[in-house]
Design goal:
Strand order of the largest sheet: 6-7-4-2-8-12-11
Distance between the termini: 57 Å
Structural class: alpha/beta
Number of strands: 12
Oligomer: single chain
Radius of gyration: 19 Å
Largest sheet: 7 strands, mixed
Length: about 270
């Protein structure tokens, strides 16, 4: 496997416009970037050096154990399938975690405390942490992760009320550091019967055409950046024009949703 030195990573990120004062939401798949010479901590060291004291590093620390088991501990519940870098950041001294038990972020830096104090029923709804990222000037940074991993697409799907998702409430016990309490949270979940195949690459393609998406190859993968405000604006436009704009299996999804609607209206005789 190719090795990755900190200077190589620093050079790539600098060419992509990562600079002092940046606030970054980082999705990662480090395995495609090579073997880090100084270990996984090298990525965080380089990012913190580049953004400085006025910058922020955020990573997704989503966990769906609350859905399955009805339990969430802000400090102890690990992230799930978010990659080793997300879990590494979550466990760093001084890291702050946002308070949604299913779709949280871990943060270090300037906006960490401010965002960690926000509590909303939906992770992507009005006033939520995710809704504030574009307003605070956050950038998206993909470290080896593909455009299909961008979680901000859920913000636009929820805003557009796309028909292949629906609201579902989850009730369970949460511990935010002051003991357990029973709380209800909401998520705009995928319709599993319709099984929509959402392709966020379509957003990337439009952003690239507009000159708002930058990326470079690095060993076996790529590193990419864009402004989250540009990303959500683009996705919002696409979904307003066509709520199925990001769906690969469009015909299947529409047919399934229409069949379910007929059954609901007909009392099961559709």
């Amino acid at each position: 496997m190719k090795r990755l030195a900190s200077q190589t990573l620093r050079d790539v990120l600098t060419r992509l416009g990562v600079e002092a004062g940046d606030h970054l939401l980082v999705h990662s798949n480090l395995t495609v970037l090579g073997w880090p010479v100084d270990g996984i901590g090298m990525y965080l060291d380089v990012l913190r050096e580049l953004v400085g004291d006025d910058g922020t590093i955020a990573v997704p620390t989503f966990s769906f154990s609350f859905c399955r088991e009805g339990r969430f501990d802000l400090f102890a519940t690990p992230s799930e399938a978010m990659g080793s870098f997300s879990e590494y950041v979550r466990t760093q001294p001084g890291a702050r975690r946002t308070r949604h038990p299913m779709q949280s972020l871990a943060l270090l830096g300037h906006h960490a405390a401010r965002l960690a104090g926000i509590s909303t029923s939906s992770a992507f709804g009005c006033g939520s942490v995710m809704a504030r990222l574009p307003k605070l000037g956050f950038k998206l940074l993909l470290l080896g992760a593909s455009a299909r991993s961008v979680s901000m697409v859920h913000y636009s799907e929820e805003s557009a009320r796309v028909p292949y998702r629906f609201w579902k409430s989850f009730v369970g016990r949460v511990d935010m550091g002051q003991g357990e309490r029973t709380t209800s949270y909401e998520m705009y979940v995928r319709d599993l019967d319709a099984a929509p195949d959402v392709n966020e690459e379509r957003v990337r393609q439009r952003l690239t055409a507009r000159g708002q998406w930058r990326d470079e190859p690095l060993n076996y993968g790529r590193v990419a950046t864009c402004r989250i405000a540009d990303y959500t604006r683009c996705a919002d436009e696409m979904l307003r024009a066509d709520p199925y704009a990001l769906i690969e299996n469009r015909e299947q999804v529409i047919a399934t949703l229409e069949r379910k609607q007929r059954v609901a209206v007909g009392g099961g005789n559709g």
